[in-house]
Amino acid sequence: MTDDEVLEPETGDAEVRDELPEDLNVSEFVGPYVFPNNNRRRVPGYLYLLIGAACIALWATAGSDAVAVNVGFLGAGIALVLIGAYHLLAGWNLDVDEQDALVAATEQVAFPVGHASAQLGWRGLASRPTWRILLYSAENPPSRRGLVLVDGVDAEIVAWFTEDNPEDWSDLEGDLGTPSPAADDPT
């Protein structure tokens, strides 16, 4: 071994950790969860625009005999400006939270809602935020279910679908189904 070599301590797989940012780690959060807003995409968008414009300006001001600045700066600048513009386009403001989306979805379906679940997704090339609301009717067991897509920017109903609940609850014990004979037998 020479003096130039540096010994790095060996790290095992157990020592390598990957962590979620604090605002995305739901397991350690107490209280109502607030979804991160899509408009956070605008921050890197502005940075990409700034760096892209700097690359283009540097290419434009460099002379023809410049060694370190070549046509690659122009290509990188154009690419960064396009990526930055896309980030600004996709940085919609999430004005509708999951409770507002649930209210809009409940008003759309023609049955009283019992259990419901909300999931945030994005649609289209512009990456517009959209709530996907899965609804079940209030009966026990639920006789109807529906899926409603609610726009996360203006609460407009994008699409919706309802149907009779095809799930069979008859083999379950308790409130959801009829009690089985084994449950009534004390032996």
Protein architecture, described:
- It contains four helices and four strands, in the order H-H-H-E-E-E-E-H.
- The mean pLDDT is about 80.
- A hairpin with a 6-residue loop joins strand 2 (about 130-135) and strand 3.
- Helix 1 packs antiparallel against helix 2 (about 70-90).
- It has about 190 residues and is α+β, with helices and mostly antiparallel strands.
- The chain is flat, with a radius of gyration of 27 Å.
- A four-stranded antiparallel β-sheet has the order 1-2-3-4.
Q: What's the layout of helices and strands?
A:
Layout (H helix, E strand, L loop, with lengths): L41 H20 L9 H20 L7 H11 L4 E11 L4 E10 L6 E8 L5 E8 L16 H4 L3
Antiparallel strand pairs: 1-2, 2-3, 3-4
Keywords for this entry:
single chain; 187 residues; alpha+beta; Nuclear Transport Factor 2, Chain: A; four-stranded antiparallel sheet
Task: Give the structural class.
Answer: alpha+beta
SSE order in H/E notation? HHHEEEEH
Structural Rg: 27 Å
Q: Work out the strand percent.
A: 15-25%
Assign the CATH class of one domain: Alpha Beta
**Average pLDDT over all residues:** 81
Would you report the number of β strands? Answer: 4
Distance between the termini: 76 Å
Runs in which pLDDT lies below 50 for 5 or more consecutive residues are none
- Helical residue percent? 25-40%
Let me know the largest β-sheet: 4 strands, antiparallel
Number of helices: 4
Instruction: Tell me what the CATH architecture of one domain is.
Output: Roll
* Strand line-up in the sheet with most strands: 1-2-3-4
The CATH topology of one domain comes to Nuclear Transport Factor 2, Chain: A
User: How would you sum up the global shape?
Assistant: flat
